[in-house]
Amino acid sequence: AFGKLLNAGQTCVAPDYLLVPRGQAAGVAQQLAQAMGRLYPRLHDNPDYTAIISPRHRARLQALVEEARGGGAQVIEVNPAGEDLGQSRKLAPTLILGATPSMRVMQEEIFGPVLPILEYDQAEDAIAQVRQGPRPLALYWFGEDAARREQMLRQTHAGGVTINDCLWHLVQEEQPFGGVGESGMGAYHGRWGFDTFSKRKPVFRQARFNGGTLLHPPYGKTFEWVLGLIRRLS
């Protein structure tokens, strides 16, 4: 709940969807809603709960939710005080159960307080769900089964991973932060940041006496001997 709703979900490392074992989506949604209510017991005048950056972006988020609702998904709005947020830029935390891959909410980066909850049958199915999409900037795994954790780490690609929490790999100065594939290139923090944002200028200085001329044409027996020596040494 904290990881999803920090800055109302408007962070690059906010979870875009949650995978839970088959039959647990409703229970997880209920507990998430309770946790969100404890964090944000009111929304409209709560300085802890952030507004959406612009009316256009809020309308986009609402459109994602309404499309999912229209496609048969269950939409759960978490608004503990029952406030009317229609005239503000705030958007209530929203959980979506039963989203399908064709829905925009499962195809776009959400960047807001909307969280689809999906079910899987086997751990391998959850891994396949992650692998079939673009490589994510962040991946979060919860559990105590070390073998399952290592399976997930070996079989998925992500820019960074936090175990049993969300977001915190981002602020570790002793680890690089960055994406992989479509989620980004390069990494920063500490030495990694210096290397990423610096341009190295390689300089090679040829010695006065060197063997480079042995590779100059015209080619003949000497060149063939040098080439054969290089092959043997490699």
Question: What do you see in this structure?
Answer:
- There is one protein chain.
- With 234 residues, this protein is of the alpha/beta class.
- The chain has one domain (2-189): 3-Layer(aba) Sandwich (Aldehyde Dehydrogenase, Chain A, domain 2), CATH 3.40.309.
- It has helices at residues 2-5, 25-39, 55-70, 123-131, 146-155, 190-196, 221-233; strands at 18-21, 74-77, 94-97, 114-120, 138-141, 160-163.
- The N and C termini lie far apart (56 Å).
The H/E string reads HEHHEEEHEHEHH
The assigned CATH architecture is 3-Layer(aba) Sandwich
CATH class: Alpha Beta
Straight-line distance between termini: 56 Å
Largest sheet: 4 strands, mixed
Layout of strands and helices, then pairs:
Blueprint lengths: L1 H4 L12 E4 L3 H15 L15 H16 L3 E4 L16 E4 L16 E7 L2 H9 L6 E4 L4 H10 L4 E4 L26 H7 L24 H13 L1
Keyphrases for this structure?
7 helices, single chain, 4-stranded mixed β-sheet, alpha/beta, Aldehyde Dehydrogenase, Chain A, domain 2, 234 residues
At a glance:
By secondary structure, the chain is α/β, with parallel strands linked by helices.
